[in-house]
Amino acid sequence: MISDASRLYIDASVPVLRQHGLTITRLFYANMFKAHPELTSLFNMGNQASGAQQQSLASAVFAYAANIGNPGALGPVVQRIVHKHVSVGIRAEHYPIVGQHLLQAIAETLGDAATKPLLDAWKEAYGSLARLLIETEAAMYGTAGIQPGETRPMRVLDVVAESANVKSFRLAAADDKPLPAFQAGQYVSVAVDLPDGRHQLRQYSLSDAPGMDTWRISVKREDAAIETPAGMVSNWLHQNVQVGSILQVSHSFGEFTPDTEGAQPIVLLSAGVGITPMVSALKRIAAVRPQRRVIFAHAARDAAHHALRADVEALQASMPNLSVVNFYEDGNGRMDVAKLPAWPREEATVWLCGPHKFMQAQWLALLHAGVPPAKLHREVFGPELLDHLL
């Protein structure tokens, strides 16, 4: 909580932040990385190059300012941030560094408009949020039984080409000790030392059912595009990892965990490599409630880019109430909620995972179709823009 006096300045600053947020966050990252280059290992530098990370932070600042008195809205966002922070090893001593450079960027960008009361208000607000995150992250580290940044060596048992740009890597603990339990939908961080000397972490969903003595991740090779560079880590994994390779992998984290144990209908919608956590969830449902009503819809560029299709098709024989719908851009077009089988809107939960534009379009389409917001859950691969909170 923050004081009423500070709350007035925070509320008044929302329009200013909307206007200058991207400039502030670009300056923040530039200054912080210049002063602390070691922190680049905790950030996706590909997202830095494309500007996605800066947009994400700006969006988070807007959402925080707009919802500072609404813990119901901020709670899920805080949980998402905490899981991501713990997956990359954020520590308590990182927060003062971030706070210093964020306030400095606000002051530099706003100039004379950045009065001492305004900066003091944001210092108080940041301190309040930082304390919440530090405490929650400490508890999560403790529950997982790990230290910040801890990974374990895992041996690659198998490499499978799932589509034109996705490979699956089957992993087992290099020391042959049992793997910790995870929930369907969660991800792990993979740490890679690149040829240029950079140490980078990337998050990949576990794409097979929980409860096995091995893990599987399915990695999309990110090719260069007009506005985005090629994925440094994904390309390195595709080009270098083979059976017998050792990868450094974190504990599993992530709050996007579809309800796989319940009996009510469930709708799983994905696009691109967003299919990975959905397949994990579907396999778990098949194991514990094969009679459950499930709608599984996926969107891909074309059949050649449809990863893990065989996994889903294999489950249809044992799941009589599973409906599978595929959308291909070069065939029947992009995903259309109106073309899905009917489901009880007030009863079923809907889970979405995919690129931001897909998520944005489907979120709005589902609301328009009468799905209650409380029934919608989403996981965006890439920096979260939080547009649904703004």
Outline the structure in words.
- Helix 1 runs antiparallel to helix 3 (52-66), helix 4 packs across helix 6 and helix 5 runs antiparallel to helix 6 (116-144).
- This protein has helices at residues 4-35, 45-50, 52-66, 71-88, 94-110, 116-144, 232-240, 275-288, 309-316, 356-368, and strands at residues 152-161, 166-173, 187-193, 199-205, 215-220, 246-249, 266-271, 294-300, 322-328, 349-354, 376-380.
- Mean pLDDT is 90; it is low at 385-390.
- The protein folds into 3 domains: 4-144, Globin-like (Orthogonal Bundle), CATH 1.10.490; 152-249, Beta Barrel (Elongation Factor Tu (Ef-tu), domain 3); 266-389, Rossmann fold (3-Layer(aba) Sandwich), CATH 3.40.50.80.
- The longest helix is centred in the first third of the chain and has 32 residues, at 4-35.
- The chain has 390 residues and is α/β, with parallel strands linked by helices.
- The radius of gyration is 21 Å and the shape is globular.
Q: What is the rounded Rg?
A: 21 Å
Average pLDDT metric: 90
Largest sheet: 6 strands, antiparallel
Number of beta strands? 11
CA-CA gap between termini: 20 Å
SS class: alpha/beta
Question: Which CATH first-tier class of the largest domain would you pick?
Answer: Mainly Alpha
CATH superfamily of the largest domain: Globins
CATH architecture of the largest domain: Orthogonal Bundle
Approximately how much helix is present in the residues?
A: 40-55%
